[in-house]
């Protein structure tokens, strides 16, 4: 058993670090079906649509949202095939928002690739986003569940509200921690919550389980975004496959900035006002200065600490479900979301 | 009866020119309810959303799509209240596409006003469009009809496909009349068809009536867009409340251009290739030159002739329904759509 013996330590090393792999393994057949469905459903006679969509979708990404839908359905003992449609639909909604986000943020890199807006222009990105969004609703209709449609239509409206609020609070150092929390609850956590909730809904589970999975997804989504926003101030851009420092360059008011601003001296506050409110005037040395201010007030550590607190809430929400590989895999996804920052 | 006698000739004068007014009168109470619903449903805690949305919605426009939904429901003898939700939803889908269109086309004027993208930026227009689109789906869910959701999700996907196809065929004089027809069937006629179809669906009418109203809407939509595209080459910009010459400036390949190109001399074809394929290089005199070429080949008249043919098809589709004020009002809407060009 040389192979097994050789694999031993590797497996142990892998297990020592929280991973999304147990969740991926738990639903691997379903996820293969989702990947096929994604390719099939982005098809269109209008060739630019699959061309542009597949550029972003083929680049990968963790597919964490469809994994959550499949994992939630598994946890609920769902035996049908609608979870595959729903996971596809959730990924399409997410992809549509990414296409629109990159236009809004004028981003040039996403998942380690040049963004669609750079390659095909803003116009095509806006319209293909609209197409994927419509396609998502067509998929929902196929599930035949009005409750699913209600959940995901509500989530979509909340996501758009969150994105607009983010736009309004950007470049404004008077925006508060409460504003920030509302932005991330809306733009990120609402879809995580809906992705999990629909898994329980199609399995016809009772209200407390539906709410339990909603809570799990929501808290996980908040933790996930807190970590993302902490990582945006990390020294090394490789972690996320996107440009570290994007939030800073765009003058987004994320939690690390709010904390450093609130705890900063008058001089520091003036610094933050200048770089966040007129990001186009930033100087090369401002990035290092920002990191020094963040470090002085433990703003990144505190942001990650909040993420851990929301992670605990997510874990608590899971505990209402029976122990087993599904619950373990979903629980480890929380740790993965948080520990990827370390 | 002095007042009555005085009103007589005025009514006759009004009747002499086809109008949308009979349709508006037919459903005026319902339309008041729709206008209230529109205001109510664009509300959001995120203040920029109602601010931006109401700029476009308050500017008016003919509201022809919600009028069609209400008129179709009336023609089908519908007695419930879901038609008001549906008409609101149809107008929201239309408004969302206008916001995105204006970003895509970099338009500066719409309905006689400065566009939202100019006033609030592309970012806000994209995101508020997404919000209105999501809101439209929330309204559909409230009707409780999966069939309605199916129809409008399909229409939304087809609209996005049409917009992308329009983007692909723009600035390309090799695009054909068939391409053009597919673009307008998708980007315009699909929503007209859906707006009418749902009126029959909520009234639980048999398939042939559902299809009849779908046909009516589709042909009317094609006629409507043909006239729009003819008017874009009209001498006077006041007619549409938008800038005459926009299509020319953007290098869109609409039917007047296709016809003039196909019938033109080699010199004329070179002219069209130059102005359509590199619109940014257009010279001030090109606009007059284009109009001379269009006139020489009767391209505008022919475009309006096609609109009349589709208008006849729309009328034919209506004839399956019993005679009465509803049918008359919907028939007159066809003439209105066409005659506004004269």
Q: What do you see in this structure?
A:
The structure is a homodimer of 342-residue chains. Chain A has helices at residues 2-16, 21-26, 28-41, 48-58, 64-75, 82-105, 116-120, 122-143, 146-169, 177-202, 207-231, 246-250, 255-263, 266-277, 286-296, 299-318, 325-339, and strands at 109-110, 113-114. Chain A has 342 residues and is mainly α. Chain A has a single domain (20-339), classed as Farnesyl Diphosphate Synthase, CATH 1.10.600.10. The first copy, chain A, has a two-stranded antiparallel sheet with strand order 1-2. In chain A, helix 13 (255-263) crosses helix 16. The longest helix of chain A is centred in the middle third of the chain and has 26 residues, at 177-202. Chain A is globular and about 60 Å long. At the A-B interface, helix 6, helix 8 and helix 9 of A face helix 6, helix 8 and helix 9 of B.
